[in-house]
Design brief:
It is a single chain. This protein has strands at residues 47-48, 58-59, 64-65, 75-76, 82-83, 92-93, 95-96, 102-106, 114-121, 127-128, 143-145, 153-156, 160-163, 168-169, 177-178, 201-206, 220-221, 226-227, 237-242, 252-254, 257-259, 266-270, 277-281, 290-295, 298-303. The radius of gyration is 26 Å and the shape is extended. Strand 5 (82-83) and strand 6 (92-93) form a beta hairpin. It is an all-beta fold and 304 residues long. The chain has a domain at 42-93: Tumor Necrosis Factor Receptor, subunit A, domain 2, CATH 2.10.50. 0% of the residues lie in helices and 29% in strands. The strands form 12 sheets. It has a 3-stranded antiparallel sheet with strand order 8-9-11, with no helix packed on it. Strands 1-2 form a two-stranded antiparallel sheet.
């Protein structure tokens, strides 16, 4: 019954600017005041013993509970009126749904280059829409033509955007075309439309608990921007990863003079009701040095 657990997230972020990430090093553990048990103890509320005769116990699953010690099973909450988090000792009544309990998104572009605006409940859903004063999901929008691809890309099979081949260009609305004679393309990536996750970019949600992320990807697409989603627990790390080749974090040199090889810039804002932070990090062979960091609510701004 005496269990001490250490957990660490493999991100390497630090609140100290330009701090070098280091592995966790535990040099010594000393525990005083314990002795061999003289009697068996029952499992605590919120847990149950899965198998008769077992020495281990498990947490009750979401929307179940156990209110007494030594439970062999967890009881179900009333799914229509109650909910619970994993390891609960009792159920909580669902409150009337508000506009903060759902979010807006779009369906993926189909083979006819059509998309639809839809609304989804934040999961796990902890509200009711069938009682007085509650709001329901707004109706889905009509089928409409998908937005254009991002600059430098063109639609493939009428649904997926892909980068133009070498020596070709596009503003995102037209098929890729060759550069005119005596001209060369200006290579780069410009993400300004967010109806689908663009190439070279991935999103992940990491949590110290098994139920901290309301969805696996964490980030939500919202047409003209991408946001960190809703319904996550306070302990989550939402990672947005952009893979680039050929970038350097130091100036290059040509004929003995410093030369700017590449630029990354992005617009962002932060709306925080509690503690939150945004880290801009470069992941390389030397670790994950922090380029810049922001804390708390931030107005919309450009970082370059």
């Amino acid at each position: 019954m005496n269990v001490i657990t250490w957990k660490t997230m493999g991100i390497g972020l630090s609140t100290l600017h330009n701090a070098k990430p280091n592995p966790v090093l535990i040099k010594e553990i000393k525990v005083m005041g314990l002795s061999f048990t003289s009697e068996c103890t029952k499992t605590k509320p919120g847990t149950f013993v899965a198998n008769t005769g077992s020495y281990s116990y498990e947490k009750c699953a979401a929307n179940t509970f156990s209110g007494e010690s030594g439970a062999s099973v967890c009881s179900d909450c009333d799914k229509n009126t109650q909910y619970s988090s994993p390891g609960a000792t009792e159920c909580t009544d669902r409150k009337p749904c508000t506009d903060n309990d759902y979010y807006q998104t779009h369906t993926p572009c189909d083979e006819h280059n059509q998309t639809q605006e839809i609304f989804k409940w934040i999961e796990p859903r902890i509200c009711r829409s069938d009682i007085k004063g509650a709001v329901g999901l707004p109706p889905s929008g009509k089928q409409q033509t998908c937005p254009p691809c991002n600059p430098g890309m063109s639609a493939f099979n009428h649904s997926t955007c892909a980068f133009c081949p070498s020596n070709m260009f596009s503003d995102g609305t037209l098929p890729c075309q060759s550069c005119p004679p005596n001209t060369a393309p200006v290579y780069g990536i410009d993400y300004i439309r967010w109806h689908q996750m663009p190439p070279k970019m991935d999103s992940t949600c990491l949590s110290l608990s098994s139920y901290g992320c309301s969805d696996e990807s964490g980030w939500q697409l919202a047409a003209d921007h991408i946001h960190s989603g809703k319904g996550h627990a306070d302990d989550v790390y939402l990672v947005l990863d952009l893979g680039l080749d050929g970038m350097r974090y130091e100036e290059g040199y040509f004929d003995g003079k410093a030369e700017e090889l590449g630029v990354i810039s992005f617009w962002f804002s932060m709306e925080c009701s509690g503690n939150c932070a945004l880290f801009f990090v470069q992941d390389d062979d030397d670790g994950s040095p922090i380029i810049e960091e922001w804390f708390g609510t931030q107005e919309k701004q450009l970082f370059r």
